[in-house]
């Protein structure tokens, strides 16, 4: 499904995270691994050149976002990027909660605050936003107002903190950073329905959830 200019939502079925493809160059999150073949089929339907995907960016440690990382890395030949504080182990990934077979993702590059993820049409700033997990990040293109928010913020709520690595104080601090961004025109969360102000069915979803940040 096309969500914004050159951004596709490829998956989000079952317990899997949403998987986004940006400019046919960057994949954001990978899901548990239950729907790899279906995701690849979606790429073909949308004429995505799989050889063009150079990077896989993981928004945080949890298995529903990282379980398929090594498989996608092998099939796409892409490098894997995650924040320096994203220690992805069987425990921190909470893979047992998803009844998944944990395999440690092969990370090629560690991201830091204010690093840039550039594609043909976007320049995303990497912002460390712990609280849901220690290594949580969001990707923010301030010029276009596009936010890939992982599990920090959704169109109908905020990330959980009642799980290993969760921290209620830190997530509140991270959410306040989001409120300072100003105009967010496209919100691409780790689960659930994305929102875009250009979509007539959005019905103020972005403004509503931002207004709930304390």
How would you sum up this structure, described in words?
By secondary structure, the protein is an alpha/beta fold. It has one domain (2-211): Ribonuclease Z/Hydroxyacylglutathione hydrolase-like (Metallo-beta-lactamase, Chain A). It is built from 5 helices and 15 strands. The strands form 3 sheets. A 7-stranded mixed β-sheet has the order 1-2-3-4-5-6-7, with helices on one face. Strands 8-9-10-11-14-15 form a 6-stranded mixed β-sheet, with no helix packed on it. A two-stranded antiparallel sheet has the order 12-13. The longest helix is centred in the last third of the chain and has 12 residues, at 168-179. The chain is globular and about 40 Å long. The N and C termini lie far apart (32 Å). The model has no long low-confidence stretch (mean pLDDT 94).
List the helices and strands and how they pair.
Layout lengths: L1 E3 L2 E5 L7 E4 L3 E3 L7 H10 L9 E3 L5 H4 L2 H8 L2 E5 L25 E3 L4 E3 L4 E6 L8 E5 L4 E5 L2 E2 L2 E2 L9 H12 L6 E4 L5 E2 L8 H7 L3
Parallel strand pairs: 4-5, 5-6, 6-7, 11-14
Antiparallel strand pairs: 1-2, 2-3, 3-4, 8-9, 9-10, 10-11, 12-13, 14-15
CATH topology: Metallo-beta-lactamase, Chain A
Largest sheet: 7 strands, mixed
- What's the number of helices? 5
Radius of gyration: 16 Å
CATH superfamily: Ribonuclease Z/Hydroxyacylglutathione hydrolase-like
H and E string:
EEEEHEHHEEEEEEEEHEEH
What's the architecture, going by CATH? Answer: 4-Layer Sandwich
Number of domains: 1
Mean pLDDT: 94
Helical amount: 10-25%
């Amino acid at each position: 499904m096309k969500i914004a200019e050159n951004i596709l939502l490829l998956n989000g079925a079952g317990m899997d995270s949403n998987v986004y493809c940006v400019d046919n160059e960057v994949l954001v999150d990978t899901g548990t691994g239950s729907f790899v073949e279906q995701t690849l089929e979606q790429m073909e339907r949308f004429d995505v050149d799989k050889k063009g995907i150079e990077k896989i960016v993981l928004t945080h440690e949890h298995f529903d976002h990282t379980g398929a990382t090594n498989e996608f890395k092998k099939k796409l030949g892409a490098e894997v990027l995650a924040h320096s504080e994203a220690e992805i182990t069987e425990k921190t990934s909470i893979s047992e909660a998803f009844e998944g077979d944990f395999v440690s993702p092969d990370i090629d590059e560690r991201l830091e605050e204010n690093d840039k993820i550039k594609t043909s049409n976007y320049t995303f700033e990497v912002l460390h936003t712990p609280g849901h997990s220690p290594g949580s990040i969001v990707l923010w293109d301030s010029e276009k107002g596009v936010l890939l928010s992982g599990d920090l913020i959704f169109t109908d709520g905020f990330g959980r903190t009642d799980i290993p690595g969760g921290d209620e104080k830190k997530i509140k601090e991270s959410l306040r950073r989001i409120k300072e961004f100003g105009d967010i025109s496209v919100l691409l969360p780790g689960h659930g329905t994305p929102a875009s102000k250009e979509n007539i069915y959005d019905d103020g979803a972005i403004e509503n959830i931002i207004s709930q940040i304390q």
